[in-house]
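Moderator note: this is an archived Q&A kept for reference. The question asked for a predicted structure of one protein chain; the sequence and the answer are reproduced below.
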Amino acid sequence: MIEVGIFNFFCNKLSEVYPMHDIDRELCYQYFEYFELPKNTLYEKQGEIPQYQNYILSGFMRKFHTDVDGNEITVEINSEPRFIASYMSLMERKPATETLQTITDCKILRIKRDDMDTVFEKGISVKQYTIQLFQNIIEEKNRKAFELATLSAEERYVKLLREAPQIVQNVPIQYIASLLGMKPESLSRIRKKLNK
């Protein structure tokens, strides 16, 4: 059972994106579960079929894939409050192309993939919220690809520093560097230059 204060926080955050109907609140309360993950947990690994849609209540998680040379490429770093999953794999029930990893201890709400179908079927606003979520994800991916192609490494870091200082303050440099498409040494030089 989800603690009422946590659940109300979750519903209020969702309502900021798309108004939440009472029946959807009831369904979410029934099917979402509270879950805690310790720091550095590999969760829903690349190559496995994802089982959950996850909502970060507190903490930091990253999404990464491992390339053919064994290098981890961070594609997303999320902090609360935010959904995180290997979305296309989750929806299509196919092996994930990414791994989720906790960077800090995390508190999450999660819903099983099968239960998502029930909530979509019986609910009113959750399906619309999910459509909006996917549109936002596509826009974010397009924006990131554009920034990697048009901004310098320093400009990408300054933008992250301005828009998500909590990530810069709480996430190890190697993950931030990977997210921004550079080596940790390059990011260290940029940080030293900006701190002068």
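Archived answer notes: DSSP finds nine helices and eight strands in the chain.
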